[in-house]
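Field: sequence (string)
Field: structure_tokens (string)

Example rows 1 and 2, in order.
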Amino acid sequence: MQTEYVTHYRGCDIHPVVTTAEGGRYTAAAIVTDREGETRTLGVEGDFAGSDEARNQAMELAIAWIQRRHVVSDHYVRRG
């Protein structure tokens, strides 16, 4: 399992987790921690040939989730 790679995006920390599966394949997930310390784990459906591909897919999923959350949050926050 690889978790040393961390990216900061829109105030969140993204930790992709890559795990070796059967036959030398890889699976991935992303752990996202926001500014308040709330953590969410996002799973990536797939069976990847390389660890870089698995990590990249986990990062893409996390960034998409953060972007959707950011848009929804901004929509419902009153600015005054």
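Row 2 begins here:
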Amino acid sequence: MEVIAIQKSALEGMKNELKALLELTENATRKYMPIFKEEKWLDNQEVCLMMNITKRTLQTYKDKGLLPYSKLNRKNYYKLSDVQALLGAGRPYNTIGNASTDK
């Protein structure tokens, strides 16, 4: 085990910097908390598993405007209610062209 000795003032300075960083992080995330607390949000993988579709099919749904999404830090998120609404609609489009899957 290695022991490193530093001055108490240096340790206090590091503590203060860490506290300031924590406060900045909390302030930055505070404005997004109401959005995430109002409704459950799902990522790509969760939506694909829930709908039993591939990532490509999910991309098609997004491209055609069938499934709204929000982007945060280069990652897509979907409202659970939007996914459930699309599931309730019975996936109105297949992935080949715009042909309807309902007969």
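free_text_note (row 2): The chain has two domains: 9-37, 39-103.
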